[in-house]
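User: For my dataset I need records formatted as: sequence, then structure tokens, nothing else. Please produce one.
Assistant:
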Amino acid sequence: MSDNRPLARMTRRRFLTTTALGALAVAVLGLPGTARAQEPLKVAGIYTVPVEQQWVSRIHIAALAAQERGDITYTYSENTANTDYPRVMREYAEQGYDLIIGEIFGVEAEAREVVAEYPDTAFLMGSSFKEDPALANLSVFDNYIQDASYLSGIIAGAMTQSGNIGMVGGFPIPEVNRLMHAFMAGVREMRPDATFQVSFIGSWFDPPKAKETAFAMIENGADVLYAERFGVSDAAKEKGILAIGNVIDTQSDYPETVVASALWHFEPTLDHAIEMVKAGSFTAADYGAYSFMKEGGASLAPYGTFEGKIPQAAVDLVNAKSAAIKDGSFTVEINDEEPSSS
């Protein structure tokens, strides 16, 4: 897909003050506290990696779905370096986009400065930090899919023979840490004596490095891999061991080795933001809860090629825990601390 990064334009502030169309533009675009007209919202996505990368792909897919049903028009910039991120935010804001979505994990302070400069633009950003009441036009989110990660851990615990699990992540930030801890807790439901090799590659998109890290874990006895990053499942396939997917379902690419995946569904998060912007009710909020399983923001992927190959005790436990998570009688612990090998 092409990079639709916007070009610099005459500032909307100057436009409003130097043309007779200014009043009409305000009426149509409005402010975060003003209801929008019923035409589709203009939404822009800014991503630091390709839209094919698993985490960003879920945001991208949700935006395409909203565009398909006519709620928004959507453009995006991918592979945006952190050093360029604030500039691209400004360019989209200057062009009058109603809602800008993306991830500011690596540029928190600078991005929030941009948000403050454009109070009439709504921003929905992946962030390791909470909302700031002083920035009423910034809501934050994260993929709190610990529920599904826990369930995938139950499957891994039932499938491992050695009890040695390899886990490869990008960076040890809260949104990764919590998923790893939940996965480990699920493994221990079936295999209390399990051990874990934990490593972070220092990149969100470096499949060769993730693959080499996974190879080292296999050499050290791991027979199941937690594939938080692309490249890990390739290592599992080459060595003929099992892998657990994260955020997206890649079993069709690895039908013999990816046994389960924790899926993230961004639709509840984005749809709520669209609703709030259209109603003129968008304000600073933490959208993290919309990733919870009970909100439809997470699920365990279908077993697919592993249907009937997973021990029934694990399947039964997954079903029971899923029901308990959805009805609120069981809560998966959220632990944002950096995990370590054990």
